[in-house]
Write a structure and sequence with these properties.
By secondary structure, this protein is of the alpha+beta class. 38% of the residues lie in helices and 18% in strands.
């Protein structure tokens, strides 16, 4: 297991979402690599911080039971056609309670008549009703709410971790974009310019050098491959040759494969010839080439 895989398992460990196999692998890696323990601590701190940031705004535990109780005890309108119900004034269509007539016996429960009013209709509308008391929450209801809260918090934490990971990759990408080498920035600017031009010249040992430039932005970049090997006390220097007068455009050192990308110092002008010479380390001490050019690239 590498450190990246360990970091992924550490995030799952903070969410308590690892399988038994992953948890065992994580514990073995913790014993083998104690230097990775900071991933466990960081993810645990993130989970704790996100949990503390969630505000406590939960509905009452008895909201559902109270609503169902009110629906069960609330008088209901009789079944009417929608058109009739819409045209009826408020209160019309309700069955008013009928008081029992004197001398008439109450019907028994064993033989109810379909035309007799129910016990709810027999109560006087003016009779005071007992206040509604919400029932105490049951253990099942409390456990259901706790499971709901835990599940909601788990999903919130997972989503937050995804956002943090996304922001981390985004920050790395932005950092790479901001810290681009100047020669890369110049190449992109040249390629976007309407007057971008390029030319390639061959080196004596099979290498090549390609110059890219744009007079509108005044920049030029030299890309070399297969440059000859030079001594430790030597360097390559690039020049703008204007009217047979060389103007130094900086020095550069290739990599071990003889490749290099150099941003030329100064401003490229129409008719310049880009030349490369081998000079002492630090560049020509006289300000003029001390050797013949190994490559020349005309820009016109």
């Amino acid at each position: 297991m590498n450190e990246r895989e360990f970091a992924e398992l550490a995030a799952g460990h903070a969410l308590n979402a690892l399988s038994p196999e992953d948890r065992a692998a994580l514990e073995q890696a913790r014993l083998a690599h104690p230097e990775w323990e900071h991933w466990i601590a960081a993810d645990a701190a993130t989970a704790a911080g996100l949990a503390e940031a969630v505000p406590d705004a939960l509905p009452p535990l008895t909201a559902r039971s109270s609503l169902l109780t009110r629906i069960a005890t609330m008088p209901q309108l009789p079944a009417l056609h929608p058109a009739e119900a819409a045209a009826a004034p408020p209160g019309e269509g309700w069955s008013r309670p009928r008081a029992p007539e004197a001398g008439v016996a109450e019907p028994s429960e064993e033989s109810p008549s379909p035309e007799e009013p129910s016990s709810a209709e027999q109560r006087s509308p003016e009779a005071p009703r007992s206040p509604m008391v919400e029932p105490a929450p049951t253990t099942t209801m409390i456990q259901a709410v706790q499971r709901r809260n835990w599940t909601r918090g788990l999903f919130l934490l997972a989503a937050s971790l995804v956002v943090l990971v996304t922001l981390g990759f985004g920050a790395a990408t932005i950092n790479e974009f901001v810290n681009r080498p100047p020669e890369v920035v110049a190449m992109q600017q040249i390629e976007s310019a309407p007057d971008a031009l390029s030319a390639t010249a061959e080196l004596g040992d099979g290498g090549s050098a390609t110059a890219l430039w744009s007079e509108s932005i005044g920049k030029a970049v030299l890309i070399s491959n297969g440059l000859p090997r030079i001594g430790a006390e030597e360097t390559f220097e690039v020049w703008f040759v204007r009217d047979d007068e060389p103007v130094s455009a900086g020095v550069f050192d290739p990599n071990e494969n003889g490749g290099a990308t150099a941003l030329l110092e100064g401003t490229v002008q129409s008719g310049d010839v880009i030349a490369v010479t081998v000079e002492p380390a630090g560049g020509s001490p006289t300000g003029e080439p001390s050797t013949d050019p190994i490559v020349t690239i005309p820009t016109s």
